[in-house]
Structure formats: C-alpha cells, structure tokens
User: Which sequence fits this backbone?
C-alpha cells in the first residue's frame, strides 16, 4: 500500500498538465556512417491482464544489446523517436511503448496498479527478440520514466545500465544504487532544476563504475524537450550506451 501511494505521489507531481501478428513495419532508415539498416516496427505487447500496449521496436537487424525507453507522464512513446533511431543506428535494439491511457494504448485498467507489470511485459518483449543479447540490456526514462526505470532495475537482474533524463530518484532507488555500486549510470539533468541536479550528482559520485556520469545543461527543459534545446545530448546518450553495453 505504501509503495502504491508513493507511485501515485510521484506520478501526480510529475504529471503537469514480441513476436505477434499485429507487427507493422513503418519505415527503414540507414545510417550513412556505419551502414546499419534500421527497421521500425509498430507492435503490440500483451499485458498481464490482456490489454494490448502499443509499442514501437527499432531493430538494427543484426545481433546486439537492447534498450527499453520509458516515456514521461505528459508524452507518449513517439517522444523517443530521435533517440531510438540514433541508438538503433549504433547497433542497439530499442523498444518504446505507450503507458495505459497514453498515445495509442487504451485507458483500460488502472495505470498505477499495472505500471510495474506493464513495464515488466515490455522488457520481456524486448528480450524475446531473437537478435537481442539478453546479457546486455539497459533501461532509461524521462521524468516519471526515471522512477519507472529504477523500479524495473530493482525487480530485474537483467538490467546492466541505467539512463536517467531529468527525473528524481526515489529513496528505494538511492538504496538500490548504493547496493549496486558497479551499475553504470548516465544522468542528464536540466541545470535549472537545482535540487535534482544536486541529488543526481551525489548519487553519481557514490558510484564505483568509472562510466557513471552526470551532465547538467543550463537553459534546458524538463524531459525529452531538452533535446530540442541541446540536440547534442542525443549523440552523448548514444555514444555512452554503445560504449557501456559493448564493454
């Protein structure tokens, strides 16, 4: 009950305002630098209670690591498109999906009661793809997606790296990171959100992994909109994940 209340408070505060027969190929793109062909597929993820969570899978069409991206609570999975394509161009398989009541996923059942199992279902879907290396899987999120990312890592030993985009870390997450000092973490923060910058900076300083990094961007934005003000962040995240997942 306490955990549910905590989830509700975090989500409310931040909310300001695979194989299956339904896969649909949207487009193919190719990175001029490394000749990787990226296939973008719209798919369904079957939740534990039978709801179809709408998702997009970005495949580099060759064996490689995997990345699950969790959107913030005033957007949907499409907010990740630019980063997802960049990651796939670097050889990383990427999955994004719409939470219940967001984007194309129906608002059926309680988001707060099912968010954990829905995220678990999404991770299972990513790992079920035949070319995804199950030993090299990362998770990342923006805003409330940071909370959902750390909660997933606490539930699943398959997570090998964490990416946080302008979001707070719950106390349980801080304790988890302290108990897993070798976990590589990349935290991108809006430099104007001073308290969160300090919190993430303290967490990164306690990390024992030399790859762990926190970068704060002044005149930024909260969540994915920071990409528009600082487009170089996409390359920073891509290069960091490619390095730690291929180490």
Assistant:
């Amino acid at each position: 009950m306490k955990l549910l209340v905590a989830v509700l408070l975090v989500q409310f505060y931040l909310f300001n305002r695979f194989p299956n027969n339904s896969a649909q190929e949207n487009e193919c793109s190719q990175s001029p630098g490394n000749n990787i062909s990226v296939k973008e597929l719209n798919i369904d993820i079957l939740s534990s209670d039978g709801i179809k969570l709408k998702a997009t899978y970005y495949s580099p069409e060759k064996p490689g690591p995997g990345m699950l991206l969790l959107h913030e609570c005033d957007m949907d999975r499409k907010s990740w498109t630019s980063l997802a394509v960049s990651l796939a161009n670097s050889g990383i398989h990427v999955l994004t999906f719409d939470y219940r009541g967001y984007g194309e996923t129906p608002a059926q059942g309680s988001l707060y009661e099912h968010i954990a199992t829905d995220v678990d279902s999404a991770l299972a879907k990513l790992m079920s793809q035949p070319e995804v290396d199950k030993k090299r899987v990362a998770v990342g999120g923006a805003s409330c997606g940071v909370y959902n990312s750390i909660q997933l890592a606490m539930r699943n030993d398959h997570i090998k790296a964490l990416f946080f985009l302008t979001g707070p870390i719950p106390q349980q997450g801080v304790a988890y990171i302290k108990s897993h000092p070798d976990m590589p973490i990349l935290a991108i923060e809006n430099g104007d959100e001073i308290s969160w910058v300090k919190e993430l900076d303290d967490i990164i300083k306690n990390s024992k992994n030399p790859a762990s990094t926190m970068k704060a961007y002044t005149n930024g934005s909260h969540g994915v909109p920071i990409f528009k003000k600082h487009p170089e962040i996409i390359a920073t995240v891509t290069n960091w994940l490619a390095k730690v997942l291929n180490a």
